[in-house]
Amino acid sequence: MAHAPYIRWFSDLRRGDIASVGGKNASLGELTQSISSLGIKVPEGFATTAVAYWDFIETNQLKDKIATQISRLEKDDGNLSAVGGAIRGLILAGTFPEALNRAIVTAYGDMARQVGRRRPDVAVRSSATAEDLPEASFAGQLETFLNIRGPEPLLDACKRCYASLFTDRAIAYRETHGFDHMQIALSVGVQRMVRADKASSGVMFSIDTETGFPNTVIINAAWGLGETVVQGIVDPDEYVVFKPLLAKPGLKPIIERRAGAKSQKMIYARSATSPLKCINTTKRERNAFVLSEKEILQLAKAAVAIEDHYHQPMDMEWAKDGDSNDLFIVQARPETVQSRKASEHLKRYTLVEKGERLVTGLSIGDAIATGPVCRLENPGQIDQFEPGAVLVTEMTDPDWVPVMKKAAAIVTDHGGRTSHAAIVSRELGLPAVIGTGNGSQTLQDTQEVTVSCAEGDVGFVYSGTVKFEIEEIDLESLPETQTKIMINLANPAAAFRWWRLPSDGVGLARIEFIVSNIIKVHPMALVAFDKVTDRRARREIKKLTRNYPDMSEFFVDKLAQGVARIAAAHYPKPVIVRMSDFKTNEYARLIGGSGFEPDEENPMLGWRGASRYYSEGYRDGFVLECEALRQVREQIGLRNVIVMIPFCRTLKEADRVLAVMAENGLQRGEKGLEIFVMCEIPSNVILAEQFADRFDGFSIGSNDLTQLVLGVDRDSDILSALFDERDDAVTIAIADLLRKARTKGIKTGICGQAPSDHPEFAEFLVANGIDSISVTPDSFLEVKKHVAKAEKSLT
User: Which of the residues 420, 522, 570, 786 is marked catalytic?
Assistant: First the structure.
């Protein structure tokens, strides 16, 4: 199968062959040779060489003609569209040298015999000789043609690949990045098609693409061929896998599974002129997860193996063959955005206020921007776009890049985290809200808006110019402290945002946020759905749980994933997860909740916290909470999770709660499980030694403790002057607790707001020997400095 010097088989290529076959094809060769031995499949194929490209150019006497057209740009007497169109026309009018023509056709015949098909369907991909270097990502600049079958269509596709080296967007990219147009050649990769049209495909990264968190694999998946994911035509499923636990036997470290809409899929068309078509997916396909648990883990392991082989974060495309059900890696290239960011600095965007929320979608980046809306239907309307405006459109493809470069932010109706709009927004450093569904209809031209991607995985577009602040943090300048400084987290979507913060773990992870914002349904409405009488609630519950045959499984799965995401972001440091502490009026507001909650005069002192867990009215709901935490620790493997019980009034109540937990797989001390208790009731202080016999640690809730020591409602405007954590009665109680805990040898921490608001309060805690202080991420830096100063003054 020798066709030198025009053809190289993937099996003979290595990544050092970029000068000959470009980055994309060299990478496919590297994968074929080195990764396949690890059980990862790569489709067979071959590549035309740079020599083949230059012989084509020379045979058709195109070099001087192309150079003349390029010089028009440099002289500024020709526009980009005219220049690009002229060069592509020259290439498409050319003919292949006879030897090159014969080499391509013969190699295709050899492939046919290799795969056992007379006219195998192939993917024809463009690969530039400077492509996919860490300093140069040409992603989306060149063309790929799928389902090409037969010698003549293959030759035509190869020529169109050559022409795509001079698309408008490719020319503009090289101009911007200083590449010499006449020094870059084009290699064509011809690869056996994986029949993903009968199954599924997608994209994955071995790094979190929004925050640079290095310990996850992000997988996007949709039905049919992967172009729908890359082009942002569909909203794909998204799966997140925690890499450090992947190799441990028996664990399934999938920390997130989110079902996308997947409204369309791309399949083969029986037409010579249009080999592909998009069709609507079925209801069953829209409601189902694309990948099984086993397939998610198999792909994640492949991603880690590829990353390890290349010694850098990677961007990969995968496909599942509908005939064999095998998974394949069809492309792999270096990730070029997050992996190059400096790790010692953290830029923090914070909204000072919030306006009216107009649309929401996936958050790309972590910045905030403001500007007037400019709605465009196609990139040809670039002359209508004012620099600094917010680009709003249905979706983008590479032709949009010149417009995107002028935007302050981007909003699209469709797309996922690996869509073109998302990838380019990251490269340009622009905040983008992707997949809003209705952004181009809701937002109006010239309307002033604020695009916020600083609030986690969900991005928001607010009406008007909303105030925000930007702070650049030099993490290397932070002092060391003996007292552990931890952070409070509630929103799993924001967990990875703070991974660079040098905290000692999470002192308080509230599951109420996960329940109210992600699950949304009262747990008892899932356990006893037949008792839900409200028709609207029943419809909403059925819609939310449509991917789950067992409604209770929906609650367990979503809660486990939310907790796991927070725990993974800080692994192996401790993450203290507080079990539910809704009050009855808050529980009643959950979908289906009103029928399971009493009407209380004073919910703050009512049926909340520990008292619910063993009660007949909620015990089955607490069982679901226990099962979720058990899955996080034992199935996912995040044993850094510590469980905490809130509002535990009496010793008898503590015993009853611990017994229920043990019955449901959370036995204190078993498999390293620690259980803490909140100290927020005077009884917890008075009986601290006895509580210490039952728990592994205390976490002081200074807000509730202050209310109950002073008898003050913190929400009362009339009594606001009396509410003060620094009052002597409160500080004496806290000092007493710390002394008793120290005597009993158990851990102590605080997770209230007081240390953030009052530097002297933090100093008081340090002086009394507290083990840890947990604060909101935006308070972390100041509290860390206060504590360091306090520790220094005590020495």
Answer: 420
